[in-house]
Amino acid sequence: MKFTIYTILIFLFTFQVSAQEGDRTSGKEYPDGEGGTVYLPLGDASFADAVVSNHPGEIPPDEDLPAVRPEYTLGVPDYTKPSAPGFLSLGCDGSVVLQFTDNILIDVEGPDLYVFEVGPAVEPTLLEISYDGKEWIDVGKIEGARADVDIAPFVKENDVFNYVRLTNAGKSCGGRTPGADIDAVAAVGSGYRLSLNSAVLFDLGEAVLQPEAKKELDAIAMQIKEMPGNMRVVVEGHTDNIGTPQVNEELSIERAQAVWDELSKEITIDEELVSIQGRGESRPVANNDTEEGRALNRRVDILILPDS
């Protein structure tokens, strides 16, 4: 199936567990650092994909050790021993910001996030999550070789998050690898995100679908119909920052509704499982100071989330 260059596909999270037989039809198990395992329905795609920033803090780890490289927090847990690569020491008051690019963090029933900490001393860490890497939600202090985190008390329904920030919170900090030692971070709650640039859907400033948009949306509808499991659909309209916030919000709602009106001709789903939202200019994915950035910000995101 062919999509435009602007289409971002983020993998579907779904539990496919037989209540009678107890077998799992998807996902994978990983060592939890305590002699057990963690089951992640999304498998390897659950883990953080990119390092946005790393600040070692007042007392950083020994530069001669492999633990100073933040990229070791990415991907699956691979810690073997303190002298081998596979983890990042945050340093005293140090922090690291990680991004999910092939999945998004959402709230589902039970734990939503796993933080794998390793090393001989397990130290507390402050956890924050963010949609855009600018506005942060404080989830609080976590500790343990494997921290199971439920973000439900801190978020709203249908909120999605792309970034995690971990900051060392230990009172004592020293040695060659000071601070918490992070091996991996995994999002358990995830969903598809199909993002269409508005240029392939609408004329500038308009909310009436162009004739050629139907082909794009037919392809999206086919993709959605092939997804397994029960699901919710959130259609979000987004704009650049040209014009007033009120006008942009209204335009983004109208565009989201127009997209869903077309998709619903092909997709059968209960109305209560569909949410139409206008985000206006509030959630840019690029710099609004350039035409290229504004073009990327004018988009409609279709989020396919597990139905709790």
What can you tell me about this protein's structure?
By secondary structure, this protein is α+β, with helices and mostly antiparallel strands. It folds into two domains: 156 residues, Jelly Rolls, CATH 2.60.120; 115 residues, OmpA-like domain (60s Ribosomal Protein L30, Chain: A, 2-Layer Sandwich), CATH 3.30.1330.60. The chain is built from three helices and 15 strands. The longest helix has 19 residues. It is elongated.
Using brief descriptors, characterize the structure shown.
60s Ribosomal Protein L30, Chain: A, Jelly Rolls, five-stranded antiparallel beta sheet, alpha+beta, 28% strand, elongated, 15 strands, 2 domains, single chain, 308 residues, 3 helices, four-stranded antiparallel beta sheet
Topology:
Layout: E1 28-31, E2 37-40, E3 50-55, E4 88-89, E5 95-99, E6 113-117, E7 125-130, E8 136-142, E9 146-149, E10 163-168, E11 181-187, E12 192-197, H1 213-225, E13 231-238, H2 245-263, E14 274-280, H3 291-297, E15 299-306
How much β-strand is present in the residues? Answer: 25-35%
Q: Order of strands across the widest beta sheet?
A: 3-5-10-7-8
Q: Given this structure, which CATH class of the largest domain is correct?
A: Mainly Beta
| Assigned CATH architecture of the largest domain | Sandwich
How many E strands? 15
The averaged pLDDT comes out at 81
Instruction: Kindly identify the CATH topology of the largest domain.
Output: Jelly Rolls
Cα radius of gyration in angstroms:
21 Å
Number of domains: 2
Helix/sheet category: alpha+beta
Helix content: 10-25%
